[in-house]
Amino acid sequence: MDPVSVERPSMLNLLNIRLPSRVGPRIDVFGTYLLRDNDGNKMANIAANCQGKPESMAMEVLREWLAGKGVEVSWESLVATLKKSDLSGVTDDVQMMLEQLRS
């Protein structure tokens, strides 16, 4: 195989692969990373508005992300991350959204 024709993995693919391991099981870290919230203000507001409930916080983070705020990652990467966070209700909702988008 010609080395010139071999495709390098894109930065987006690398981000998708690394997202679950970078974020881990904490939804506040997930939101901070996904929304590029370097100073933590967005997540502090989300936590206050959602009364610290992890599933509510995750859905609010996803609403912000769907509005075009934050990093570009794949749906599959989001699902893998949410599964690692043990947010099964949110994971199910995200998988349903993904299936609707695919149909």
Radius of gyration, in angstroms, nearest whole number:
15 Å
Secondary-structure element sequence? HHHHHH
The 3D shape can be described as globular
Structural class of the helices, strands and pairings?
mainly alpha
Share of residues in strands:
under 5%
Number of DSSP strands?
Answer: 0
Largest sheet: none
Mean pLDDT: 75
DSSP helix fraction: 55-70%
Oligomer: single chain
Distance between the termini: 36 Å
Determine the number of helices (DSSP H or I, runs of at least 4 residues).
Answer: 6
Show unreliable segments.
Answer: 1-9
Number of domains: 1
InterPro entries: DEATH-like_dom_sf (IPR011029), Death_dom (IPR000488)
Domain Death: 58-98
Protein name: Death domain-containing protein
What report would you give on this structure?
One of its GO terms (biological process) is signal transduction. It comes from Geodia barretti. This is Death domain-containing protein. By secondary structure, this protein is mostly helical. It has one domain. The protein contains six helices and no strands. The protein is globular and about 35 Å long.
